[in-house]
Amino acid sequence: MLRAIVVAALLSPAVLASGESVAWENPGHQVVGKVADLILEQHPATRDKVRLLLEGASLSEAAIWADCAKDAEAFAAGRRLRTN
Fold it and tell me: How far apart are alpha carbons 40 and 76 in whole angstroms?
């Protein structure tokens, strides 16, 4: 738990300095998911239930699913995908 708090504290300045909420995208969501994964490591029973719900994926992996779907919709609509 302490490790997750330290990671979150170290990442907070980067998050606060980003300026735009849309700047999260895949990397930002993966970081948040990784912090959640670290917290879940302290609670194995809950971690196992989450992995069951996510069909074996970690929260770090699942955190970008909406971004991937958004990019697929943009691609299908013929819009240029953002690379940042």
Answer: 36
